[in-house]
Amino acid sequence: MRIFESIINHKINTITAEELLKYAKQFNITVNRGQAKKIAEYLKGKNINIFDDRERSKLIKEIAKAAGPETAREVNKLFMELAKS
């Protein structure tokens, strides 16, 4: 795995609600505080590789259950932006 991917994945797996809100704002993605908190709690301690389509897809489905499908779509957009940075 490239170092860049490792850094991005580490950030995703340790992200806080406040950081998620900051990135969402930076990339013009709609996520409210409550949704960010649920998503950050879900991600905490997981070892997810957002560069792997299957892992990312599974994660987005779990986020949809926790925070709703629209939020999951928005978070997927954020992951895609981070992945292509």
List keywords for this structure.
DUF2624; single chain; mainly alpha; 85 residues; DUF2624 domain-containing protein
Strand content: under 5%
Q: Which percent range fits the helix content?
A: over 70%
Average pLDDT, all residues: 87
Structural class assignment: mainly alpha
CA radius of gyration? 11 Å
Number of domains: 1
User: SSE order, as H and E?
Assistant: HHHHH
Task: Characterize the main sheet.
Answer: none
| End-to-end Cα distance | 16 Å
What's the number of helices? 5
Coarse shape: globular
User: Spans with pLDDT under 50 lasting ≥5 residues?
Assistant: none
Strand tally is 0
InterPro entries: DUF2624
Protein name: DUF2624 domain-containing protein
Organism: Neobacillus mesonae
Pfam families: DUF2624
Detailed description of the structure:
This is DUF2624 domain-containing protein. It comes from Neobacillus mesonae. This protein has helices at 3-14, 17-26, 33-43, 53-67, 69-84. The two termini are 16 Å apart. The chain is globular and about 30 Å long. It is built from 5 helices and no strands. Helix 2 (17-26) packs across helix 3 (33-43) and helix 4 packs antiparallel against helix 5 (69-84). Helices cover 75% and strands 0% of the residues. By secondary structure, it is mostly helical. The longest helix is centred in the last third of the chain and has 16 residues, at 69-84. It has one domain (3-84). 24% of the residues are buried.
